[in-house]
Amino acid sequence: MLLEIRHVTQYKYAVPVRESVMELWMQPQKSVRQRLVSFDLDLDPPSQLFSYADSFGNAVYHFDVPQPHDQLTITARAAVESQAPPPLPAALDIGEWDRMRSDFLRGENFDFLHPHGFARETEALRRYEADHNIAALRQRDPLTALLALNKAIYESFDYEAGVTRADSPIDHVLEQRRGVCQDFAHVMIAICRSWGVPARYVSGYLFTDRKHGDRSDPDATHAWVEVFLPSLRWVGLDPTNNTIAGERHIACAVGRDYSDVPPSRGVYKGEAESELVVGVSVRKARAALSDPEFLRVSRPGPQANRRVQPNVAAFEEQRRHQMQQQQQ
Q1: Model confidence over 288-324: pLDDT tens digits?
Q2: Tens digit of pLDDT for each residue in 174-233?
Q3: What are the pLDDT digits (tens) for 273-282?
Q4: β-pair partners for 119
Q5: SS3 string of the chain?
Q6: In what order do the strands lie in the sheet with 249-255?
Q7: What is the CATH number of domain 2-82+263-325?
Q8: Are the CB atoms for 33 and 25 separated by under 8 Å?
Q9: Chain region(s) in the chain for CATH 2.60.40.2250
């Protein structure tokens, strides 16, 4: 499936601020099942972009706007060719639980086995597990148990934007029984890690299809969970839509929770009140794209179509090394 993504982030300030410093986790990943055809970033006001690979192998772009401004607009455009993952087996043998207890596996996935930030056990989560008899799911093999957990979270919570915020702890969604994709991902990650299953947060996009029963917002970013099973390696599960992550899911970054991989994060100098507006569009491409993989920075004025080529080879070498260290 060939998909085009447009992601606009706009910060508006009541009065001009003196400077803004930003980091972005917006570039779709490159993997066996996800080919990044092109990726462009437009900045207004214009600024020089820099990039690095973070500790999880994600591409991170950062920039500084050193002059006064009352608005900052970031427009990311990407074209991605995705493939469906191989079909999962009907079940795994019960011995998979023992294989996940190996010291080597636990050491390699240390970051994804321990509580962090929003993804942690709380008293409210323990009450939720007791009320829905979540512990009984572990009597099955790990794959069957995780698919059942994915479904249980889907059925337990309603999707509703505005009930929680980006910095809301999981207790808020547990009390309200309503929330958005990142809330459901945090609940599932916390439970998986309590079971001894390595689980990580995935941020990205979803090509929403109501025919598949999707309930997530088509005009927003998306988040889901990947769990590590020794026999299958990383498997993506989407508790928001009760589905397995497939070719309609476009991954940008992975981390321990949302705080590791927000689409954008930054600070500014000034005392102005700020307003954030975000718009996302994911659609099927109308024709095959053949542009090489590059980062294009559009600048207003005479340099409007200037293209800047990053050091892709160096970045990929660093990323491959980090991914090998994390058993990807």
Answers
A1: 555 444 454 444 443 333 333 344 444 455 555 454 4
A2: 999 999 999 999 999 999 999 999 999 999 999 998 777 889 888 899 999 999 999 999
A3: 999 999 999 9
A4: 116
A5: CEEEEEEEEEEEEEEEECEEEEEECCCCCCECCEEEEEEEEEEECCCCCEEEECCCCCEEEEEEECCCEEEEEEEEEEEEEECCCCCCCCCCCCCHHHHCCCHHHHHHCHHHCCCECCECCCHHHHHHHHHCCHHHHHHCCHHHHHHHHHHHHHHHCEECCCCCCCCCCHHHHHHHCEECHHHHHHHHHHHHHHCCCCEEEEEEEECCCHHHCCCCCCCCCEEEEEEEECCCEEEEEECCCCEECCCCEEEEEEECCHHHCCCEEEEEECCCCEEEEEEEEEEECCCCCCCCCCEEEECCHHHCCCCECCCHHHHHHHHHHHHHHCCC
A6: 243-244, 233-238, 222-229, 199-206, 249-255
A7: 2.60.40.2250
A8: no
A9: 2-82+263-325
Q: The dihedral of CA 302, 22, 8, 60: what is its sign?
A: positive
Task: Please provide the CATH number assigned to the domain covering 96-246.
Answer: 3.10.620.30
Q: In which residue are the tokens 């240390």 written?
A: 110
Place of tokens 């309609």: 248
Cα distances (Å, whole numbers) of residue 216 to 63, 242, 294, 297: 31, 11, 30, 31
Task: Name, in order, each residue with C-beta under 8 angstroms of 40's C-beta and a sequence gap of 6 or more.
Answer: 75, 76, 77, 78, 295, 296, 297, 298
Write down the pTM of the prediction.
0.87
Please report the pLDDT score of residue 12 as a whole number: 97
How far is residue 205's CA from residue 159's CA, in Å, rounded to a whole number? 16
Query: Quick one: pLDDT band at residue 328, thresholds 50, 70, 90?
Result: very low
Q: How far apart are CA 259 and CA 105, in angstroms?
A: 24
CA angle centred on 84, ends 82 and 85, rounded to 5°: 120
Structure tokens at 322: 């980090």
User: How many CA atoms lie less than 13 Å away from 249 in the CB half-sphere?
Assistant: 28
